[in-house]
Design brief:
The chain has ten helices and two strands, in the order ααβαααβααααα. 44% of the residues lie in helices and 5% in strands. The relative contact order is 0.16. The protein has a two-stranded parallel sheet with strand order 1-2. The longest helix is centred in the N-terminal third of the chain and has 14 residues. The chain has a single domain, classed as Rossmann fold (3-Layer(aba) Sandwich). It has 209 residues and is mainly alpha-helical. The N and C termini lie far apart (49 Å). It is globular, with a radius of gyration of 18 Å. Belongs to the sulfotransferase 1 family. Its EC number is 2.8.2.-. InterPro entries: P-loop_NTPase, Sulfotransferase_dom. It is found in: Cytoplasm. This is Sulfotransferase.
Length: 209
Amino acid sequence: MGCFELLKTTPSPRIIKTHLPIALLPKSFWENKCKMIYLARNGKDVAVSYYHFDLMNNLQPFPGTWEEYLEKFLAGNVAYGSWFDHVKSWWEKREGYPLIYLCYEDLKQNPKKEIKKIASFLDKTLDEETLDRIIHHTSFEMMKENPLVNYTHLPTAIMDHSKSPFMRKGVVGDWKNYFTVTQNEKFDAIYKKKLSGTTLEFCTDIPSA
């Protein structure tokens, strides 16, 4: 059974996960006022994460060196297009639609607060025990060991975990281990130009406690 057929036969409420930019999302999603949860992550860590994913994902072209890949990322010549355009367009779309815009960095710093936001958005009430269980099972450490989400069940021909695990680090600020000073300055300049005029801000580092 194909994906579309499966969706048609799955009773409501259905959960659909996608990385698609707004322009490629079916118009019916907006027309039917489907509730949407958008999770954004700071672009510097996204670039590093994408690079390692493309290293191990044999369905994608070989990304080349980090320097080569970052140039492609900054130009938007990667899967799902420009990160800058992606996060900006979804940010602007949140007005007038049942869309909640979350940041990965906020989830890392205060998962309970962010999960409560999601529950409220979905008109759900969670007791403390259920909330704690959700936090436990959705932690990076638990998900990294969960074969339902870490893709270790896939053959090496599709995802080669010897090159890089699918669930790699999940930290905020790993970009500092890869970006040169010049690369960081170039990213910041493009960020300032692309996201000018918006109130969208990203956290690129979480200080150690």
